[in-house]
Design goal:
By secondary structure, the protein is α/β, with parallel strands linked by helices. The protein has one domain: 3-Layer(aba) Sandwich (Collagenase (Catalytic Domain)), CATH 3.40.390. Helix content is about 50%, strand content about 20%. The chain has a 4-stranded mixed sheet, sandwiched between helices. The two termini are about 25 Å apart.
Amino acid sequence: MAVVEFLSADLNFKLPEIKKTREWLGACAKREKCTLELIQYIFCSDQYLLAINRDYLKHDTLTDIITFDYSNGRHLEGEIYISLERVRENARQYGVLFSDELRRVMVHGVLHLAGHSDKSAREKAQMRKREDACLSLWKK
């Protein structure tokens, strides 16, 4: 049975529509021919995620998401850290709702766990298409 947890690290944040979000993330994983086993979303500040980025990835830059993959094949397990400050800033920059940008970033983490990369321009475009396909599942 899938366990998807939503935790806050250094911010007071409660994700709305938890049940619908869990079901949607499961549908997104299924679309990728994967199953969710144990996923922990940890919502945090820029500074919290920057410290992780420095300590584990040796990058000294702000980012919206860091995914630690513990998956076993198509059975997805991992920790997905999301900076709500970056998500809010990105939503402003792209002219979208915070909730829509947050869902995009959340599914981005699942797609990384499913084995998709976004290092090259081509991979980024493919990742964006997958994100869009998953976002369309939310609206159904």
